[in-house]
Amino acid sequence: MNYREQLKNKKRIVIKIGSSSLTYRETGLINISKLERLVRALADLSNQGKDVILVSSGAIAVGKNTAGIHERTLTLPQKQACAAIGQAQLMTMYQKLFAEYNKISAQVLITKFTMLGEKSLHNATNTFNELFLMGAIPVVNENDTVSTEEIEFGDNDTLSAIVASIIQADLLILLSDIDGLFSDDPHQNPEARFIDLVPEITPELLDMGKSTPGTCVGTGGMSTKLAAARIATASGTDMIIANGENVGVIGRIMNGENIGTLFISHKEGDFNVVDFLKK
Ligand SMILES: Nc1ncnc2c1ncn2[C@@H]1O[C@H](COP(=O)(O)OP(=O)(O)O)[C@@H](O)[C@H]1O
Ligand SMILES: N[C@@H](CCC(=O)OP(=O)(O)O)C(=O)O
Question: Is the N or the C terminus of the chain less surrounded, counting Cβ atoms within 10 Å?
Answer without folding.
Answer: C
